[in-house]
């Protein structure tokens, strides 16, 4: 009788130990899961920051390209004006030469 009770108590003790080990394992897994989620959140934040930086750089590049295009247009207009002035100057010189 004592032997079977002793065996029963030992089995109950083993079951309790297993439960305790499972509980520790579950707590450990939960801690790992939480740490993993924090890492994911941090990586998502970093990725978001990088995407925002890329967008800001792309916007700045677009603005710079627009300024360059505007300056090239102005330069072309100045070249045309310079050409017109040169033609006008040559025409005036021709007129002066004819009248003198």
From TrEMBL:
Keyword Coiled coil appears in the UniProt entry: yes
Q: Which residues form a coiled coil?
A: 3-98
Q: Which UniProt keywords apply?
A: Coiled coil
Protein origin, superkingdom:
Eukaryota
Annotated protein name in UniProt: 15468_t:CDS:1
